[in-house]
């Protein structure tokens, strides 16, 4: 319960936001060739460039390939393009480290902070400290419930969940009473709640009508992929080895689940969802082991955060408000947070090419001996 975020608010305001967002997407579209997963920053790492300092803290490495593979290089590039000097660190799932990194950045004189927190409480504590020093804070990807940050940049996360629910239903097709296991994200990550809420808009009516049968739904602390796999295995064996569909909240969890399915000779026979359009997830889709993923073009997220940071570093809140034209509701803090909410895309085997065409993942990262035939058929090269 609790995290009813975005549902109504942002959708109503989307029309108003369209103009600003269009601009943003147009800008995002331009730089896509050079984006790549592991892009080097223009100035090279450690290059202080003389710009205004901005501190960025990412939450984990192991929960998803996105943080180090996409967010870090893309934020670095986008912040430098705004003339800023980024210090980008990863808290490795450790709240204490998150807090210590923030203290270091605050005392080193950063002018803006961008944080993707492990938990709302940890993120809020950092934002309070920064704001006490007059440093504006942007919540990046994950909203800190009950927080004090000035802006929020993310995707429409309920929509991400709805796409996962739709993908699952589409993949299962007509199989009355098909059995579903749900492996969800971290209970401390508001996004995991939003993904779940979005999934349930599609799945709950099916569970209620008996079209689908829910075996069990389980949240996974810190999105730990390995724990996700062992948890799934316990549920599967507890259900006599029967499952038709698995809601895996992201590609990392999906990968661990596919490993377990393979152990029981079930991979390729069970519909598995995902998220993040990682190289591993896309390759699993091409092999037929995973049914879908959700593509969130992180370059757009990084560029929106960088534009906001650039404006805030100059104290230009009017310009920042011109970027963050949407709002999300923080039900815990009982406030609306000015936001940028980008559009996620459903990807199945037929549309994997959209992700390679966008330059987000290279064909060479997903086309291998096992997937070569699919790559050929789909024109992925
Ligand atoms: C992000 C997902 C990611 C997950 C685990 C969520 O907050 O939105 O993209 O897969 O965290 O890192």
TrEMBL record:
Residues 55-316 form the Periplasmic binding protein domain. Gene3D superfamilies: 3.40.50.2300. GO terms for molecular function: carbohydrate binding. InterPro entries: Bact_Solute-Bind_Prot2, Peripla_BP_I, SBP_2_dom. It is found in: Cell envelope. GO terms for cellular component: outer membrane-bounded periplasmic space. Pfam families: Peripla_BP_4 (PF13407). Keywords: Signal. PANTHER family: D-XYLOSE-BINDING PERIPLASMIC PROTEIN. This is D-xylose transport system substrate-binding protein. It comes from Pseudonocardia alni.
